[in-house]
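Notebook entry, structure prediction.
Reason for the run: the old model in the group folder had no record of what sequence produced it. Starting over properly, with the input documented here first.
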Amino acid sequence: MVRSAYLKTVFRTIRDNLGRFIAVTLIILLGIAFVSGLGTLSYKMERALADAYDEAASPDIMIKSTSLFGISSSVTEQVEAYAGVKAVQSLTVIDTAEETENVRVVITDLADQKVNRLSLVEGRLPESGTEVVAERASDEVKAHAVGDKVTVMGQEMTVVGIVANAMYSYRGGEPMLTEDLAENEDGADFDESEMEKLQQIFYADASSYGGFLPVTDLYVFMDYEEARFGDAYDEAAEADAAALEALLADDSLVFMTLEDTMSYALAQSYAGKLDVIAAFFPAFFIAVSALVVLSTMTRMIEEDRPAIGCYRTIGYKDGMIAAKYLFFSAVCCLIGSGGGLGVGLTLLPAVIYPAFNTMFFVPAWEQWVQPLMGIVAAVVMLLAVAAVTLYLIRKELRCAPAEVLRPKTPKAGKKIFLEYIPVLWKRLSFRFKSTFRNIFRYGKNLVMTVISVAGSTAIVLAGMGLSDTCRADDIRNSFPKMADAVSAISAVVIIFAALLCILVIYNLTNMNIAERKRELATLKVLGYREAEVCMYIFREILIMAVMGIIVGIPLGYGILYFMLGYLDFGSVQDVMWYSYLFTPVFVLFIIGIVDVLLRFKIKKIDMTSSLKTVE
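New structure, fully documented this time:
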């Protein structure tokens, strides 16, 4: 019987606090969704490209000759005999620069593509010396159709097929490989503005040339277990490239890895920038979410003091009493975290992921996910809420049952700092004097509201600033593709910040109304009109929100300053003036919407039942 009655009280706690339960769960869901969604973006992009490289057996090491005689057969044999080599492909790459276009011709054994297999998109492979296949079109690679007549190395040829080279996954094209890659020690130094000319890339079959052309390139595919785009893979490839260079000891050979190609280097660079964004925004999102959850639990336990005293009086153990509130907070965290992971790992990437397709040739949608950031955030949230819930309940359990049974003594009134400024204080009407006294009397509510609104404001401003940065001319000229993807992320940031702000203000205002039902009922009895009673609460919320906005604007500026510094992408000077104006107006507009929604709750307050409550 005791256990049955106890379980009823546990579930009744959720029923009696259903509004809080839903609000807290949604806030946690929103925070975890945001963290897990942004945290998986770079992983999805890299995984998609890595799979394309693996499927094509793209080279791990590339050896290029600067000699007119090319790479000798003995060098090829030595490379093939090197430990860990799975396959070697010989190529002749000829780059020519014309007035308006760069043309690259790759001649290799198309019938036996052991390394860097080309994927046939349309048509067929060449069958004679007058036929070629063309690279698929992109922003910088010229489009060709099957049947086109083209001039290649001074000879008219027919395009019989369109192919996709996994190494050319970047839509902005590739630089001329003969010299540019050899001089570039760090692939991340590549700039999208390097390719000013339209490119044409053709592939011809080596059998048509009778083996008379020199081998200019060797593509080496290694037996690596390490996944591409990982530090372990990059280090292994660099080590083997250095070992081959020492083994061959030929000054006419240049050794490179995938890190030295533009597509791979830019993918790594962009993934790193996404990780920076994914680290900055979620940290503040989780902080604000956790703060609101902790505030909710604090007020809930304080309101339940008489019930806690009653439980102790009838013999409930402290552990059972604490478990009731831990259950409430844990269920909120578990449902919110589970839902947040589901939304974050599916819906959010589905919205942003297509933006990557403007930068790279990646599948339209893949199910790869990296839930680590979301799981870590969920665990941190659960532990933080559980720790504070235990602290709060233990504080109440240390009191004698008779003391806990009595409602908490109201905080003694005292002068606020404005009262020490007579010139200002005397000019305030009674309603504003009452408002300011209530605001500063409940310092905990003030701090919670100000910090929560400040966090939401900062995230909105940072999202707006990030969007402005993407529109800046210097960014558009140097990183047009990256700007498109970051713009999509900034839009999601603003939307999530708005939703968070709505939930935060709704939850805090809702709790404020619930705590002060007797006070509001008294005002109704005294003849205050409905609008005046509503403004009694909303005026306080508005003033505290303005305080939060004043704190949040410089905080958002600081977030943006440090984030752009880590990104090495744009500047706070790119933020438009109207973003600083839009942010506070937007937050105040959201607060207005919440106040309209909660007006009906104040209207429903029953004067008779509220005035019967004991104080």
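Summary: The longest strand covers residues 85-97.
The old model has been moved to the deprecated folder.
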